[in-house]
Amino acid sequence: MADEMKVAGYICTGCGIGDRLDAGQLEMIATREGRIASCKQHEFLCSAEGVKMIKDDIDSGEATHLMIAACSRRAKTDAFSFGEIPMARANLREGVIWIRPEDPEQDETTQEMADDYIRMACNEVKQMNKPERSGEQELNKNILVVGGGVTGMTAAIEASKAGYPATIVEKSDHLGGALAGFSKKVPSKAPYAEPEDTGIAEMIAAIEADDTITVHLNSKLAKTSGAPGRFVAEIEGAGVTSEFGAIIQATGFTPYDANNLPELGYGKTPDVVTQLELEALVKDADGAIKRPSDGKEVESVVFVQCAGQRSTKENHLEYCSGFCCTTSIKQAMYFKEANGDINTTILFDDLRTPGAAGEDFYRAGQEAGVTFRKGKVSEVDGSLNVKFDDLILGMEDNIQPDLVVLATGMVPNSGVNIEAIAPKDDEEAEAGEQTENDDVVAVIDAESILNLDYRQGPDVPQLVNGFTDSHFICFPYETRRTGIYTAGPVRRPMDVEQAKSDAMGAAMKAIQAAENAALGRAAHPRSGDLSFPKFRLEGCTQCKRCTVECPFGAINEDEKGYPQFNEARCRRCGTCMGACPVRVISFENYNIMTVSEQIKNVDIPDEFDEKPRILVLACENDAYPALDMAAATGKIEYSAFARVIPVRCLGSVSTIWIQESLDSGFDGVVLMGCKKGADYQCHFVKGSEMAHYRMGKIGDTLETLSLEKERVAIYEVAITDIEKAPQYINDMAATIEEIGMSPFKF
Amino acid sequence: MSDLNQKMVEKYKGNFLQEVINNVEEGETMKMCMQCGVCSGSCPLGPHWEYPPQHIFMLIRAGKRDEVLNTDSFWNCTSCYNCIARCPRGVQITHVMHGLARYQKVLGLAPKNQPTEKFSQLFWDNLVQKGRVNELKLGLSLYFMNGFGEGIKTALKNQKLGMAMMKAKRMNPAEMFGGHGVKDPAGFQKMVKKAHELEAARIAGEES
Predict the structure, then answer these.
(1) What ipTM was reported for this prediction?
(2) Number of domains chain B contains
(3) What is the reported pLDDT for A443?
């Protein structure tokens, strides 16, 4: 790259841009006001010819930085792809001509919109540098799998098949996990009519025969440190310390403790068993299934669904474990297979048999003569009298079988809930975030699984009910610790087949993480991004906000209390940048200045021109595309006074931007991020939540400026909100009309 | 309790579902009922049944033999076939309802003075005489179903309608004397007799 920065501008006049806008004026603004080295117009910039023009300029050294004024940065990304060359895109199509009506009376404000986007892009790109990989880690193809159940074994086998050696760490003395104790499993193949072999023996044999899979039994992780591409795990029990590229946590579940259910007879008589205990009973049975108390052959059995589940009672599980209805059908079929005359009754509240396979298996159960009764069990007494309300017939009824089976749920083995033990005495933890956890004073007796040597705690964060946090919609395997993937029932309750496909997904993600780390590339959603935050430590005040607020635990602290960044753990959201009060954190291609310069270079008309300016900071993942799509409908408009700047995540928004914009005469600021909370859609998990928290305190800033608090609004916008997102901008325009223009226009 | 009923109770020992499957027409289709309740919702007379079809199926599965065999619910079925048309699981509901009614009667448990049950008997008795329904006689037997005085009263009330029907050749008074029948009455009687024998043999098989 040439030492001298040469910003080359390209204005596309295709797609109607040239018809609606004065391209000559735009070019003049780019060169005179934007002061870029060169600027060219092209009537079809994304064509092979147009792209070649740009490439030629790059090759000849005429262009080291690019300002492309055409369509949205989300459009034509294949054409406008010039490696790591810094590039700013002025959105003249979706951002201007498509969102504004074709009307001579509006032409002036529409042109002003375009003029500003040119000024903004020219000044943005000057603040950008070419990012380069850090080289912090090399390629390490070894995958660590924690847990040797069906999920862990599948993950190891899949990784090995793809050419990535796997190491299984299993705390017990055998592989197979819970499934090893099963008699049979719910069928995985059409016609889904009969229970099938668990397949555990074959899996164990495959692992034993595989040279690239190492198994450590009776072992656990004493310490895990590092980052993707360079994880170091001390394996206690095996007495080895090894390096890994990525980690899959498949630690499964613990059966719910049925001792919490004395009302259902558990503990009162040995003839009330859980589903897992029945599996053992059936496995050990020689011919007829006999009940534990007196060895009598079971002639009638009742299954009680949702035992201690889907209930808000103390010590019950609030959620549905999802696998237990099909498991009860399978177990009823054990009895029917042994003797068709055995009465098998399943008492359910809602029968949930997920998937086509589940539905077929339910029908197979009906064919086999299993009785399904919708009923709520109130009591099972010591003599096995099952009292229940029949919810179809609306009557109380009771059955006295030989055996009662309780369908109890799954409790995830997710280790320590690190957010419940967040250091309360750390003042920055309180200043930081986790407002919803302020009242949590939990006593944790869980043992850590990963023993992570991370500042943020020894295990991966949990979301609700102890299950590990992951972006449920878009990135189900990604935990909040990059390079560590959870799969199976530790992530959400699931059955064997679901756990297997979960394991495959996690294995693929782990492989991807190891490869990405070697290349210095980001994982999702900024896949392939080489930029990473840089810390100007001489300006750092050691406030620790970045280390606390990073949703991914990317930042440790060194001995002196300075942030110690781990590139491969970073997702490049910039939440640290938004957190830093002294603004010492920046990315090569995204920093405080790239946005500040855009804000400063918007032309602010005089107060009496009646032309307000609205700054819109829109999340590039959802809100910005929603605005683009609104434009593409051709029916939706938003105010010509809006100037939209995409941000990586609302979490990266620095309050200085808000302050600067209001200082320089903007009349309103609209922030749009993703949904936050337990059912969040934020692509960086906590970014949107952090932004809302920080903006909750913006009132003070406004007060010092003597401005109305209505001038700053923050919204949660989903990618589908193509009507709402423009409406929020128009609402701000209406608000400004009501409360008047900003007094800060000079 | 009839002998047959007693024997059935002993034979099936509370497995009423199996008893129904073995003895009621299309009874085996009931296995696939998933209790969605579309049948009850589709039944035009559903609200007037003691147990609508969905509940009958649930009672059968729950082994509530007495409840099912002592209700007059299925006698209310008008054979509109809405339920069969709508059942997502292919349960032959209308047939099962009629089958249950018949089975109830076979067991000697049919409700007393149930109008549909009475009419069904009159219809059958009328039909088996000549293999064809004699509408005039069937109508008259309906008039006199509840006693002689009641019959005369109803007949007089419908006098005008009857005359009009005769004029329009919709009713032939000559039907009172013999009336029309099938071409081969002897063959027809043989067929009915054979059917009775088959049914008797089936029940004997059930009893054994």
Answers:
(1) 0.86
(2) 2
(3) 40
